[in-house]
Amino acid sequence: MSITTSPTEAPLEPLPDDLDSPRAKLVFLTLSVAGPTTVAELQNALDVPKLTLLSVLDTLASRELVERTENGYVTAA
Predict the structure, then answer these.
(1) From CA 2, how far away is CA 10, in angstroms rounded?
(2) What are 52-75's pLDDT values in tens digits?
(3) CATH number of the domain that 40 lies in?
């Protein structure tokens, strides 16, 4: 599965204030646009090492900004 969006989708919400890392911002924005996304899909789309992604996702999850689901990671509601 590739990560794609259409131009008719709703605009993005502002980034949470506590996102300092450029990678965290990139991962959060990707999840915001793509919806449920696996680590492998994020790795392919962003060209970021798996261990780095897992660390970023763990940090985002600990701040309750993303959640892990059966279909991958999503931004928290």
Answers:
(1) 20
(2) 999 999 999 999 999 999 999 999
(3) 1.10.10.10
